[in-house]
């Protein structure tokens, strides 16, 4: 345990995971908002909106996240000069949040759209029959029912997002995977323990999250 | 609700006008956004011909992009074969009647599904050399990492597929005197594999995208050769990133289309596999018939 009893290493370990949690939290909120809006666009009566939603999903779902994050740093920041914060780390953090959000939003959109498909047709037909508009049908009738069936996919998207947050390390944020790399390079005699501590922390965070979402999805499932 | 247009009425005259107005307003806004991006690129001199001209030279393709693409496909191909083997072994392990096989197999699968791929690649590339007293090549670091992660995902998919085969199939097989080994191999696996084909192919899209992580350990794949190295020569990193993104999107769209085609082709079958995590088809295919990626890993 000598690696982690050194306070300096322990602080690095903590701050690495703190970055992961911060990235996950901010990106989850942004991706949820963008994703639901995209899903609404994809089922809307306006063709331009549908095309826009479909294009977004196809572009970001088929591009590696590494390339998206890479583009955020070298494209948005280094070339186009988009600077989001004075502090270097904070700037990379926000660039990472942008990349993770636009990428994850594509998956959120698809999950919501599948959720909309699980709502029986009669619900939307009834809503239209009493004269609700498209926006009202979606907001008052369909989305609240769809929300219950997308909890399980949202769980897997959140878990994937948390794991994907490590990729922001490739543009220089000292998050957990970079911290692990440095610790391994300085402590060649304890590599297995270092890996098990880092991987174990992820497992301890994510496996219960998975079970929690499974339980929640079961509890809130619409019994039909 | 298979068709989404049940959400709104067939447009009457007023709705048609409103939709047209919305189309125009949003279309103009979209064009404005594209124009704004265009001018920002222009201000940063990203449209200069010298940045794009390299893509018309054959050396760019033969020395950078195509070797990179080949390395990407090689890692993805080897990784896919190994993950299929890993997936089958651990799916059988988890379904074993002996607890001392099923419990460890379950733990391995749950563990590797929860650990980020990047962490695994770093451990294999930087950590394992200390253990085996010799270097690990970037290729194997990437392939082993991909195998452990995607293999675990596939193991869960296979398990769900095998469990979804109707119970009568295995009962009938046992009734004619087959052993458990035979029932699995001859009866359950062929039926499950057929039903799981679209999910297997969509996992290949995930795997192919994940090879881009090889860039981090300097494996000369598409992102490394076609973006990093090429841009080091010509200083055109944005142009390179756009070209690489287009290549990835084309390949993955083809794979997705292939998965959708398989799904339609095998559409007439005795049973459908329920998705493990989602109720009816959530996180599932698009109306165009594309299969999806259940786990949006990098």
Question: Which class of secondary structure composition applies to the elements of chain B?
Answer: mainly alpha
Number of helices of chain B: 10
Rg over alpha carbons of chain A: 21 Å
Main β-sheet of chain B: number of strands, strand sense, barrel status?
A: none
Write down the overall mean pLDDT of chain B: 83
Strand content of chain A: under 5%
Structural class of chain A: mainly alpha
Largest chain-chain contact? A-B, 89 and 72 residues
Largest sheet of chain A, if any?
Answer: none
The low-confidence parts of chain B are 275-295
What is the general shape of chain B? flat
Number of strands of chain B: 0
> What overall geometry of chain A do the principal axes of the alpha carbons give?
flat
Please describe the structure with a list of short key phrases separated by commas or semicolons.
heterodimer, A: 224 residues, 10 helices, flat, B: 298 residues, mainly alpha
Q: What this model shows, in words?
A:
The complex is a heterodimer of chains A (224) and B (298). Chain A has 224 residues and is mainly alpha-helical. Helix content of chain A is 81%, strand content 0%. Chain A has helices at 2-5, 7-42, 47-62, 65-79, 88-118, 121-129, 134-149, 151-164, 176-186, 191-220. Chain A is flat, with a radius of gyration of 21 Å. Mean pLDDT of chain B is 83; it is low at 275-295. In chain B, helix 9 (222-234) runs antiparallel to helix 10. Chain B is mostly helical. Helices cover 72% and strands 0% of the residues of chain B. Chain B has helices spanning 13-43, 49-52, 58-95, 99-114, 117-132, 138-164, 167-175, 180-210, 222-234, 237-265. Classes of the chains: A mainly alpha (224), B mainly alpha (298). At the A-B interface, helix 3, helix 4, helix 5, helix 6 and helix 7 of A face helix 1, helix 4, helix 5, helix 8 and helix 10 of B.
């Amino acid at each position: 345990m000598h690696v982690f009893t050194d306070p300096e290493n322990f602080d690095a370990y903590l701050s690495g995971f703190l970055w992961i949690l911060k990235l996950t939290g901010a990106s989850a909120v942004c991706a949820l908002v963008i994703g639901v809006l995209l899903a609404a666009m994809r089922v809307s009566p306006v063709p331009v909106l549908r095309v826009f939603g479909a294009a977004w999903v196809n572009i970001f779902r088929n591009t590696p996240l590494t390339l998206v994050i890479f583009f955020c740093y070298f494209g948005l920041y280094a070339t186009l000069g988009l600077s989001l914060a004075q502090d270097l780390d904070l700037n990379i953090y926000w660039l990472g949040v942008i990349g993770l959000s636009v990428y994850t939003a594509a998956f959120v959109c698809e999950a919501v759209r599948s959720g909309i498909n699980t709502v029986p047709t009669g619900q939307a037909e009834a809503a239209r029959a009493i004269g609700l508009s498209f926006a009202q049908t979606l907001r008052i009738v369909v989305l609240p029912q769809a929300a219950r069936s997308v909890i399980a996919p949202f769980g897997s998207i959140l878990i994937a997002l948390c794991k994907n947050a490590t990729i922001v390390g490739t543009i220089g944020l000292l998050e957990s995977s970079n911290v692990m790399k440095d610790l391994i390079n300085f402590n060649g005699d304890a590599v297995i323990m270092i890996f098990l501590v880092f991987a174990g922390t992820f497992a301890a965070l994510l496996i219960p999250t998975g079970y929690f979402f499974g339980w929640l999805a079961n509890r809130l499932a619409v019994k039909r | 609700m298979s068709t989404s247009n049940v959400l709104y009425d067939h447009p009457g005259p007023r709705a048609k006008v409103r939709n047209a107005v919305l189309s125009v307003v949003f279309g103009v806004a979209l064009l404005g956004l594209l124009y704004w991006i265009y001018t920002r690129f222009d201000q940063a001199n990203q449209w200069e011909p010298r940045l794009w001209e390299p893509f018309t030279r054959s050396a760019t393709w033969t020395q950078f992009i195509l070797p990179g693409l080949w390395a990407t496909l090689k890692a993805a191909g080897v990784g896919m074969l190994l993950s299929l083997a890993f997936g089958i072994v651990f799916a059988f392990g988890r379904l074993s009647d002996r607890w001392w096989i099923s419990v460890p197999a379950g733990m391995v699968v749950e563990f590797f599904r929860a650990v980020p791929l990047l962490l695994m690649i770093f451990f294999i590339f930087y950590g394992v050399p200390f253990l085996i007293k010799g270097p690990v090549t970037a290729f194997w670091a990437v392939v082993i990492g991909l195998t452990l992660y995607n293999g675990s995902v596939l193991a869960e998919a296979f398990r769900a597929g095998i469990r979804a085969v109707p119970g009568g199939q295995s009962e009938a097989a046992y009734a004619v005197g087959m052993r458990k080994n035979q029932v699995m191999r001859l009866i359950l696996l062929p039926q499950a594999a057929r039903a799981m084909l679209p999910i297997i192919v969509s996992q290949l899209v995930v795997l192919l995208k994940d090879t881009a992580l090889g860039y981090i350990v300097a494996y000369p794949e598409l992102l490394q050769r076609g973006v990093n190295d090429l841009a080091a020569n010509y200083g055109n990193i944005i142009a390179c990133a756009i070209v690489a993104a287009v290549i990835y999107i084309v390949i993955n769209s083809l794979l997705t289309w292939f998965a959708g085609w398989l799904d339609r082709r095998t559409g007439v079958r005795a049973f459908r596999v329920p998705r493990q995590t989602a109720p009816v088809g959530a996180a599932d295919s698009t109306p165009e018939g594309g299969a999806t990626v259940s786990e949006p890993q990098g």
